[in-house]
Automatic annotation (TrEMBL):
GO biological process: protoporphyrinogen IX biosynthetic process
Transferase as UniProt keyword: yes
UniProtKB keywords: Porphyrin biosynthesis, Transferase
Cellular compartments per GO CC: cytoplasm
Name of the protein described by the UniProt record: Porphobilinogen deaminase
Superkingdom of origin: Bacteria
Length: 306
């Protein structure tokens, strides 16, 4: 039976506002491009129910595995993930069918003022070692507090006065309609985003060639090149989404320009490097840059915890 005979395509998604919003965006783009109706199927993942800090429950895969299980069981046709939540390793039987055009990949400070204007010792919340390390490098005096929960919950801690500010992904804030909370968008020179941040991933079963072709209609090749370079850095450094690794790849005069940094969690040191190459060589570009970081002592920096 071909895809066209099955009725609406079933899109597996997490149930948070951010997830359903980005899934609906993809659904609409697919319907527009192919004429196929798409229906959202909400799935609860381990990352949605666990109260542990992401770094403690292992990070990689907690938002993703339940969706992949539904794909493999044939209960949904494809899934939409935030690409930065996807582990870098391949998943058996699963294909990355498309990476749509990327949203703003940068991090944003949400609070009453810009980072430089926060008072000494201000309490700033984030659960990500990458953001912790870079915040401490920028403002060693801050009290950086570990938090988790969805973006709305984190913003509420600022509104309630429990925290002075939080750092969140600009793309996610836009998707939940909360750009009003943004006081400052960090330039990648100040804070390098997580590999794949701001980008979405469409996955389906690897044996569904019909679906792979259909989903490929919303793929953006330059986004794929950028996130491939970024995620290859992370893979070579053997870090998950909770590693203190920041990356940023973008098209500059038809070349792919990649910057990556590894930071000590206490903010005391950072190793940062850049490289350029052809977008077709994105993986090689990422691999070479990661090896240059390792040659400068990146693995030792990442091993340090406080
Ligand atoms: N860690 C959870 C997560 N996964 C994707 C996003 C934001 C949206 C994106 O990067 O595409 C977020 C929230 C955040 O980091 O602020």
């Amino acid at each position: 039976m071909s895809t066209a005979d099955r009725g609406p395509l079933r899109l597996g998604t997490r149930k948070s506002l951010m997830a359903t919003t980005q899934s609906q965006l993809v659904a609409d783009a697919l319907t527009e491009a192919t004429g196929h109706a798409v229906e959202l199927v909400g799935v609860t993942t381990e990352g949605d129910v666990s109260k542990a800090l992401l770094a403690q429950i292992g990070g990689t895969g907690v938002f993703v595995n339940a969706l992949r299980d539904r794909l493999l069981a044939g209960e949904v046709d494809f899934a939409v993930h935030s690409l930065k939540d996807l582990p870098t390793g391949p998943a058996d039987g699963i294909a990355l069918a498309a990476t749509p055009a990327r949203d703003d990949p940068r991090d944003a400070l949400c609070g009453p003022c810009k980072l430089a204007d926060l008072p000494r010792g201000a309490r700033v919340g984030t659960g990500s070692p990458r953001r912790v390390a870079q915040l401490r490098a920028l403002r060693p005096d801050l009290d950086v507090v570990a938090i988790r929960g969805n973006a709305d919950t984190r913003l509420r801690k600022v509104a309630d006065g429990e925290l002075d500010a939080v750092v969140l992904a600009h793309a996610g804030l836009r998707r939940i309609g909360r750009l009003d909370a943004v006081a400052e968008v960090f330039d990648p020179d100040q804070m390098l985003p997580a590999p794949g941040q701001g980008s979405l991933a469409l996955e389906c079963r690897a044996d569904r060639d019909d679906l792979r072709a259909l989903l490929g209609t919303v793929d953006d090749p330059m986004t794929r090149a950028c996130v491939t370079a970024e995620r290859t850095v992370l893979a070579v450094l053997e870090g998950g989404c909770s590693a203190p690794v920041g990356t940023y790849a973008a098209e500059v005069e038809e070349e792919l320009h990649l910057t990556a940094a590894v930071a000590a969690i206490d903010g005391s040191r950072q190793i940062r490097m850049s490289a350029s190459g052809h977008p077709d060589d994105a993986e090689q570009l990422g691999r070479d840059l990661a090896h240059r970081l390792l040659a400068q002592g990146a693995d030792q920096l990442m091993g340090e915890r406080d």
